[in-house]
Structures are given as C-alpha cells and as structure tokens.
Amino acid sequence: MGIQEWFDKRKEAQIERRSTEAKVENITFPGLWTKCIHCGAQITNKDLEENLMVCPECDYHFRIGAKERIAQLFDKDSFVEMFTDILPTDPLDFIDTESYKHRLKSAKEKTDLNEAVITGIGKIEGYEVASAIMDFGFMGGSMGSVVGEKVALIMEKAIEKNLPMLAITSSGGARMQESALSLMQMAKTSCACAKMDDAKVLYICLLTEPTYGGVTASFGTLGDIIIAEQGARIGFAGRRVIEQTIHQKLPSGFQTAEYLMKFGQVDIILKRKDLRENLSKIFSMHGYTTVEVEQ
Fold it and tell me: What pTM value is reported for the model?
C-alpha cells in the first residue's frame, strides 16, 4: 500500500471516527469481538490482545491504557509505581455541566486510576528506566496539577539515579477544570526537562494516539529522541479548530505521525511490536547497561 493510499484510507476512517468515537464501547462485545475503527474488520478480542491491540487486517493501532502499556512494554513484574500518594483535589470548586469532584470520581471508577499518569521505574529488556505513562481514559489524559507534579518528580528521580527517562504521552491537553493551575504545569515539566538536559540524562518521548495541547507544547516534544507510534495523531489544536480558524482545508493525513515525520517533527515512527527492541537498542547506544537479576 502506497503512502498516499494509506493517507486516503486514514482520512476516510477519521470521518467515520468522529461520528463513532464517543460510542467506541458500543462496538465492543465483551469477551467476544471488536470492530476495527479503521477498516471495519471484526476481530476476536483474544486475537486483538495477542496482537498487542493492533488490527491484524489493516495494522491500525488501537488506543490502549497506561496499565496495558506497562504490561506490553516493560519486563514482567519489573515496574514499580511511585508517587501514588499524590492525589488530585478541586482547588477552584469548579463546576461546568457537573462538578469537577464528580468528574474525578467517575474517571477513577472507569479506569481504576487515581490520575491520568502512572509514574515509576521499570525494566525494558533489562534496562532500568524511569517512566511516566499517560492514560487517555482518565479525563482525556488531561494534564492537571497532579499530572505535572508526578511527571516532574519522576524526571528528578531519573536525574538522581542516572536513569534514562521515557515519557509516553496520550492526552487532549491541559485540564480546563484547574484553569491557570493546569497551564502552570507546562512550565514545571519544561523546567524538569531542562534539568535532565543539564544532567546529560537521556530523555525519550513516545507519542501515542492522541497527543495534543499543553502536553505536546511542553514535555511531550522536548525529548532528545522523539518516537511516534504508527498512525498516532499529534498536534496542538485539533484539525477542525485549525480549519475553522484559517478557513482552509488541511492536507490529507495532517497531524498524523507519518505527516509530521516528513517535516522533521518526529525522529522515528515505530509499530507497537517493535517498541521494546528499538528502545533497548537506543539505551545501549547511549551507554546504559542492563541490570542483572538478583538470584
């Protein structure tokens, strides 16, 4: 399949996705089948899970949560979560169509997470790595005060232990319910990135579907190496917002990893099945060594 043909199919899928994205749960039959958003193929959930949540027909990479990402990417039972005692609050008593407190409670029940990011240290093919893994399922992966704090703390831990840092992003941007407090996290995480740069700590960004807004504009694109998962949508403002602003139609495939690669905004595009191998090669190339397993 040629690149232009792939982009055209991707564009058609995006039109359908906009009308179905809010109903993704309705096309999943628990324990049985899942319908591919991109090509429409019906896939058994077992086959989809064994294929790392990638469609075996069209290679579409389904969005996955932070816990699934950890299970796929890190060595078994090696990941140790950190900073679990830092929990979100409602400093502004914010209410839109419902209260922020209620939204937080609903997100916790839906994802079994306390926030939109999991931070900790684990091993990837024996290499010890400090990591922040975002989960779009928790309020769209939005970055509030806790997300920014946990990301900054794990970066400081990477400096302290001289470990490579891996940030895996999946976010719609800043969390509106925290107003300016959420925007301040862009500065906080960017400063933490600068500290890693001064300490000569390797920082890798892995951008996954989707990465937008304040995360893209801060720690999401400040890595020494920027990797994008195949087909991921990456940007600041969304496609429709840009088109409405400039009154022009954007090119096919705009804001996809493949499109950004053409303009040098992404260093590497990888399929999900190739992440572990390529990350371990990068760690090795930068002088890191594997950690021996204690007997």
Answer: 0.87
